Amino acid sequence: MADSAVRVRIAPSPTGEPHVGTAYIALFNYLFAKKHGGTFILRIEDTDATRSTPEFEQKVLDALKWCGLEWSEGPDVGGPYGPYRQSDRKDIYLDYVRQIENNGHGFRCFCTPERLEQMREGQRAAGKQPKYDGHCLSLTAEEVTRRVDAGEPHVVRMKIPTEGSCKFTDGVYGDVEIPWDSVDMQVLLKADGMPTYHMANVVDDYLMKITHVARGEEWLASVPKHILIYQYLGLTPPVFMHLSLMRNADKSKLSKRKNPTSISYYSALGYLPEALMNFLGLFFIQIAEGEELMTMAELAEKFDPDNLSKSGAIFDIQKLDWLNGRWIREKLSDDEFLGRVLAWASENDRLKQGLKLSQSRISKLGELPALADFLLKSDLGLEPAAFAKIKSSPEELVEIFNTVQPDLEKILEWNKETIEAELRAIADRMGKKLKVVLAPLFVAVSGSSRSLPLFDSMELLGRSVVRQRLKIAGQVAASMAGSGK
User: Fold this and answer.
1) pLDDT, position 1
2) 256 known ligand binder
3) Would you name the residues annotated as active-site residues?
């Protein structure tokens, strides 16, 4: 395939805070396009209508732009193969699903969620891999027509070969073979008429002329499904490349439950986008010691997709800190440094709004740092003594933090109104007075029991920083409970 024909894409789902793993995959595709003189495309995969929001989509765009990535085609810049948002392409997919179905490779499934869950529970209890048991494969054409005409809810599933295995060559893992009996009869079209990720992904990659699909290794097991869909539609699959997952230092999967993973978190703490991209880009190149500090252009020049590691990309925060420090000291002029500091402090309007909130709470300007410095701190240095004025026992603190953290994740639009509403609802569910729940949150978020208004502060800090501070506060509370303090 000619280098000039290379077309790659990043296709995030707008269902939460953009993850550094998204930046990692996006950077690979961006550098791959640069290396081959190709085209880098952004596509929004929002087939999950219950979790996808315009707010999260905007956060995706903002985060990737902050990273310094530029796409030639996308929902914000358009292009010849749009729309670039799957919800805007809903009417495109049905014809492809019907083609698969009419050719005998798909079937209607009327199984209820209750039946499917009972089926999976039985399979798990028997030590088997949970997957669809083919119950609706035996329905006659007449029965299917009758149930469809009666308006009975149903999905369309794909048929899977009953023998043999799927063999393919991956750009990173080489020759791969996956038995067909380990592949589920994937839903292609949901009951609401929206395609599943797998169906839309294949159709969109075909229509957008994607030549190489580079994504995380967690999608390796889905390749047989995708190859089958291509075959059922009579299409040629792209080249698949599955990159090793980003991992913590202990080799566990990088996840927000263990460490901060949101791009916005690293932006809020004052990491430079150039340093973050430098750090991620080193996973894709071979360099000698002493050559670590690299611009995006230098990364593109050294980029080597033929020598990728399968051992896993370790997200070493100490190395990121070291690189970020070097970028601040060695790459920024005095004026650039001052400009970056002001831009960082003004991010999310936190400096201006923080000062406005402080005005009625101080008697002299010198009190400002002690009152509002938590808005700019990367680490509060929270200790058990910070909770000394809180009347709740350590055990009650643990209960509050363990309840509040996951419940706040349910908020789709992060602002002081939604935060207040959710915290009031949490207090009601816990059967506690609101002030009992809020008191430890003041300490967790600001490091002090005297601070700026809590809901406003949480909005200004942003979801990802609040998440991390609540996690740390929960750990401190747990240590207090464990020590009997």
Assistant:
1) 40
2) yes
3) 256
